[in-house]
Every structure is written in structure tokens, then in C-alpha cells.
Amino acid sequence: MYYLPNPPPPPSPSHTHTHTHTHTHTAWMMGDPHFITFDGHPFTFNALGEVTLIQSSGDNSLALQGRITRHGISSGTVFTALAAREDNSDTVMIAADVDGIRVYVNSVVIDLSTISEQVFNGFTVLDKGENTIGIAFKGGAYIEAKLEETMLSKISVTLPANYRDTTTGLLGVYNGIVVDDLRASDNNQLSLSASSEAVHSQFGISCKQATSCTHSITVDRGYYLS
Ligand SMILES: [Ca+2]
After folding, report:
1. Which of 12, 112, 143, 223 could form a disulfide with 217 if both were Cys (CB 3.0 to 4.6 A apart)?
2. Of the candidate ranges 63-67, 116-120, 125-129, 205-209, the one whose mean pLDDT is the lowest
3. Distance 100 CA to ligand 1 centre (A)
4. How far is CA 125 from the centre of its chain?
5. How far is the CA of 171 from the centre of ligand 1 (A)?
6. What is the pLDDT of residues 53-84, one digit of tens each?
């Protein structure tokens, strides 16, 4: 099993320049994988397959999905890909390939070797160095992922206030109220004190693709939202 020994650092302020810190919330995914929702609830969810991390239904219809795979020969599971799209933007995917972190836009890998900031339809891709990629969406959402070994070991998602009351998915219902964060896709509300088994079977599994979620990322290397 893979654990990060320390709590995550605060989000980088460099990409929240249009919103003050007090008006943004950050969710985290780390290690095998541990989650912290936008409103601050920590939980662990181990599963294999593709999951809905955010489905936002507001003015900015952000969709963020993740792929969880087994890590080596251990029983732990880790994130190896993320895919996101907002409104009618291009689709971006960050993937942990065998030879490093890769970014695909509309299923085509982009060259990060010479330009550290590249603008696409609806977002900017930022090569932050040290195997870390940032995606800054027009609507104000910011996603950052760091590659360690062959996994996306540390992922953060920062949303400004205009996403409040619009999100569901594994990263919770972002509204400043922690108690409603474990809301399954069938609207069943799980208690924050629920057992890890209940979190898995009644909340986490409901966010797996191909069961109850409307989008999926499924095409070989060129995953996309459809
Ligand atoms: Ca909440």
C-alpha cells in the first residue's frame, strides 16, 4: 500500500489570481487513493476502473473523470489518468505513461518539451516542472497532477465560488457544508461516520463509470469524454 506521510500543502496561489484564496476551495487525491472533498471530508476509496470526480451542472459544466488502476504487485490502487472538459472546450487528459507524464488534447499528445504554457480551446496547459502539470480552465477551475513512479500521486482541484452548489461526484457537493459531501449518484446521502465499507459500496461505487454516470473515458491512449 502507498501512503503519503504528510498532509498536503496549501494550494498554489499562482493560478487563483482572479479569485482571492477565501473564495476558492481545493479537493485532493493522494496515494492509494485518499480523497479530501472540496468541503474538507477525508475518505479512502479503492476501486478499479473509471470514476466521476466532478460533474458540475452550473454555468460552467465541468466534468472531471479519473482512471484508477492497480499499483504494481501490491493491493493498492492509484490514479493513472484524468480527463476533463468544460462546456464545449477541448478535452484534456493527463496520463501516467511508462515514460513519464503526458498530456493529450482531443486524444493527441502535446509536446511539452519547449513551451511551458499552451492555450487550447477552453483551458491552458501549464508544465510546472518536476513532473507536475496544471490545467487552468476559462471558468476558473484549476487542476494539478504530479507524477511519481508510474502514478498520479498527488492531484488537486481548485474551484472558485461560481461552482458552488453545482457539483456532485467523488469530490463531493461543493457548498461549504461538509455533512452532505458523500452524496451518491442516486441522491442517497451517506453519513460522514459511515464505515469504510459503506463509503465504498454506497457512495464510491455509485460514481464508477458505466454504472450510473453519464459520461465515460474509454479509448486506448486517447481517452475522451463522450
Ligand atoms: Ca458539501
Report:
1. 223
2. 205-209
3. 35
4. 15
5. 9
6. 998 987 778 999 999 988 877 778 999 999 99
Three-state secondary-structure class, residue 189: strand
74 is written with which cell numbers?
501490491
Rounded average pLDDT over 6-33? 65
Query: Residue 187 to residues 98, 119, 145, 201, 214: CA-CA distances in angstroms?
Result: 38, 37, 29, 14, 15
Q: Which three cell numbers stand for residue 118?
A: 499552451
Cell numbers standing for residue 212 = 450510473
Neighbours of ion ligand 1 (CB under 5 A): 39, 173, 175, 177, 180-181
**Tens of pLDDT along 89-110?**
999 999 998 889 999 998 889 9
Domain-wise residue ranges, the chain = 25-207
32 Cα: distance to centroid of ligand 1 (angstroms) = 23
